[in-house]
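Researcher: Structure for this, please.
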Amino acid sequence: AKGVTLHSVKVMAYDEASGRTAGDWWYFAQGVNWVLANAERPAIITVSLGSERGQTETDSFVETIIRRVINAAIPVITGAGNNGGDACTWSPAYNPEVIAVGAVGVPELSDHRAKYSNFGPCVNIFAPGSNISSAWYRSDTDSAMISGTSMATPHLTGVVAMMLAEEPRLSPADIRRRLASSASVGLVQEAGPGSPNLLLYEEAR
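Model: Predicted structure, token format:
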């Protein structure tokens, strides 16, 4: 999807000393507000962050944010999480209105679910996510080879961008159905209990 315009909306901070990122869902909400106010349509929100599900007030807050985006006809695509466990315990991946992406690629270039990738019925689809060359944070030209469902998510986002370029009025629900119907079925090895055995597929263009 080389014709898209990417906007980086910062909702987390990186701590050099600990090597960890930290944030708050309130900042995520502010980022979503900015997108809703400024997005050129069609638009997509891709979210490579998350937290454990189970805090009622937080879960309700995140669900409200997601609902606002879906009501604005903008799909939300998120990593399924990198705990090697049930994606239904991870927010926002558990939300049935988002598209939660699991990762394949370990061993390298295989269709085997990566051990780190979450799985289960809250995963919508799998995509390549291991040993991916990506832009990195140290400079405007920096790159790194990294792995995670956060690397699988952009692959799927690119496919969705091409769908919307051809059919701008597709709803988030339409997009979920299109992805499932066009996916390769039964190729993901050890997809995990409850996971849909669907691997992202898009013809070369």
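Researcher: Any notable elements?
Model: Helices lie at 25-38, 56-71, 149-166, 172-182. Residues 127 and 152 are 5 Å apart (CA to CA).
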